[in-house]
């Protein structure tokens, strides 16, 4: 997987504000992915609320003591600078889709991000997977072409999206693939939590 280091392409409807929001979201998703990667693999799903740092500081001035001088300077320079707040005590859910379906956010939250690990197969191999869920799981875990990946996916209320994907086989910060629409189904599930 080749990392993408170029900024997201502007669309005809893009504005300087939406470009700034997309850049801020991409920075936040990369930061979250690197933070989660530092804890290693085989981790549970993690969910993060995303708030504009300037608004968070205005609402809670004591937050400044928890931020580095570099973060404070970045927040002062960029109105769209985002702070991620990991959510603890998430409700029990049998899968990620069920967890997300049960989440909603107040208007003070500008966006949401999630990290999750998945096993992926080439499309040809997926067609051979057994229909029974228990057999499918055993088959998937034993398949020689399986790839373990970590997804870090974020959305903002204003519309921007960003994804980062790390493969266990290429577990290096400079090998993280990125893009605005890498995991469309997960992006839509996240967007629904902001409705």
Helix content estimate:
25-40%
How many separate structural domains? 1
Number of strands: 6
Q: In whole angstroms, how far apart are the ends?
A: 33 Å
Q: Rg from C-alpha positions?
A: 18 Å
Bin the strand percentage.
15-25%
What composes the largest sheet?
6 strands, antiparallel
Write down the overall mean pLDDT.
88
Count of DSSP H/I helices: 7
Q: Choose one word for the global shape.
A: elongated
Uncertain residue segments? 1-13
- Give the structural class: alpha+beta
Task: Describe the overall structure.
It is built from seven helices and six strands. The chain is α+β, with helices and mostly antiparallel strands and 195 residues long. The protein has a six-stranded antiparallel sheet with strand order 2-1-3-4-5-6. It starts with 15 loop residues before the first helix and ends with a helix. It has one domain. The radius of gyration is 18 Å and the shape is elongated. 26% of the residues are buried. The chain has helices spanning 16-37, 53-59, 69-77, 96-101, 123-126, 133-142, 184-193; strands spanning 46-52, 82-86, 111-120, 147-156, 161-167, 177-179.
């Amino acid at each position: 997987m080749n990392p993408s280091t170029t900024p997201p392409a502007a669309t005809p409807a893009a504005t300087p504000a939406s470009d700034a929001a997309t850049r801020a979201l991409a920075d936040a998703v990369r930061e979250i992915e690197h933070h989660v990667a530092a804890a290693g693999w085989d981790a549970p799903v993690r969910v993060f609320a995303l708030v504009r740092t300037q608004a968070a500081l205005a609402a809670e001035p004591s937050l400044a003591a928890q931020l580095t001088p570099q973060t404070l300077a970045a927040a002062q320079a960029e109105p769209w600078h985002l702070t991620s707040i990991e959510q603890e005590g998430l409700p029990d859910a049998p899968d990620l889709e069920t967890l997300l379906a049960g989440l909603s956010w107040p208007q003070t939250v500008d966006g949401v991000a999630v990290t999750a690990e998945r096993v992926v197969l080439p499309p040809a191999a997926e067609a051979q997977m057994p229909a029974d869920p228990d057999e499918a799981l055993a088959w998937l875990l034993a398949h020689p072409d399986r790839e373990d990946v970590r997804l870090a996916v974020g959305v903002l209320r204003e519309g921007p999206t960003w994804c980062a994907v790390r493969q266990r086989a290429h577990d290096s910060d400079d090998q993280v693939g990125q893009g605005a629409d890498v995991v469309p189904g997960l992006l839509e599930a996240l967007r629904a939590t902001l409705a």
